[in-house]
Amino acid sequence: MSPTQTPARNTKVMNRFDLTSRLVAKLKNQEAIVGGIGNTNFDLWAAGHRPQNFYMLGSMGLAFPIALGVALAQPDRRVFALEGDGSLLMQLGCLSTIATLRPKNLTMVVMDNGIYQITGAQPTPAAASTDLMAVAVGCGLTNSSWAADEEDFERLVDQSLTASEPMLIGVRIDDKPGTGTTRRDPVQIRERFMLGLGVREAL
Length: 203
What we know:
The chain is of the alpha/beta class. The chain has one domain (7-196): Thiamin diphosphate (ThDP)-binding fold, Pyr/PP domains (Rossmann fold, 3-Layer(aba) Sandwich), CATH 3.40.50.970. The protein is 37% helix and 16% strand.
């Protein structure tokens, strides 16, 4: 492997909606999912509504921190966070915080296509050289790895459902746009999620 060739480049390029659908299909115990902004939550929206889905609007880089808060507040609930590579680059410090607090019920998925897709497909600073999984391991998230293909992704998700430490799964994805568009109603999104987590009763 050359110095500029990261392990991510050796993995299959997959599709974000397909992977999101595979993840959602495995959730049977009211697990929470926090979807990062843009195409990441567009695909979560299209993969199937669940009261435990939280769709972020206009808060780039905060999917992992928000999911950390949910995981700490509800330690008996499995929590997933879906984030794009560009968004993660804006909030890399959260990886150290998560590694320090070590919530055993948190699984993070970074969807890496190497571009800021919804703003014009500009390459991310890390597109050519930075291995996000290596960065995560360096921060202390030792259970971090790239999914080689769809089957490997499903294996890692299955593993995460019984993990006793936080997990980060990296996936290489294509540049296809998101499937569908999230309904931009922040109050409805918040209320539905709070009901789904059992922290607010229906009126």
